[in-house]
Amino acid sequence: NVTGVQTCALPIFRLGPAAGSTGYWTTEVAERDAANVTAGDAVAMPWARQLRDYRVRTGFTDDPFARCVPPGGPRQFLGPQGFQFVEQRDLGRVLVLLGDGDRNWRVIYTDGRPVAQPADVVASYYGTSVGHWEKDTLVVDSVGYNEKFWFLGAGLPHTEALHLTERFTRTDRNTMTYSVTVDDPRTYTKPWNATWTMRWVPDQELQEFFCEEKTS
Questions:
Q1: pLDDT digits (tens, 9 = 90+) for 116-173
Q2: Contacts of 98 (CB under 8 A, 6+ apart)
Q3: Residue 21 and residue 214: Cα distance in Å, rounded?
Q4: Model pTM?
Q5: Considering only CA atoms, which of 77, 53, 27, 51 is closest in space to residue 184?
Q6: Nearest 5°: phi and psi at 149?
Q7: CA 108 to CA 141: how far, in whole Å?
Q8: What are the residues whose beta carbons fall under 8 Å from the beta carbon of 184, sequence distance 6 or more?
Q9: How far apart (Å, rounded) are the C-alpha atoms in residues 56 and 156?
């Protein structure tokens, strides 16, 4: 159990606020530095490397997020507006409520269903996510992503073969470690990992925010 977070054997919210309180999570790291990708970590195939270099060279001007496209993948946890988890045990799911990207939401199913296969789901911005608890860590497998968004602001590309394995571990009341394994065999020669820390903002709610497309 996480000290200071759980008050009983079966807490209501393992990744949310204590009973009777409010709060949300944020990531205190520059978006394009969050993946902490060094040479050899994300080994992109030639086409993907050329595309990423083009995006860098043009100053990321074709970033879909600037056109209010939802921030799928790890990028959903990097916006300045923050995010919340809502665990709905009776429905067998965890909701991720995002402060950025027109206040979108994501569903993580925890009802014991098998992990989906890309061919079995309709490709979307947030994919199809299935999670389970390993002690105090929520482990989530996600597939079924479309190619209309950048999963990281640094311009790293992906295809519909993208498979993400995320691990959310709340180490204390105010700290959570996020780890993601990126596996896209059409884009990278091998899976690679990224990890960063999330901070709890207590006694506050997500502020209303809506994206306005850049016109210049």
A1: 887 788 899 999 999 999 999 999 999 999 999 999 888 899 999 999 999 999 999 9
A2: 71, 76, 79, 81, 83, 104, 105, 106
A3: 36
A4: 0.88
A5: 51
A6: -130, 165
A7: 9
A8: 158, 159, 161, 162, 163
A9: 10
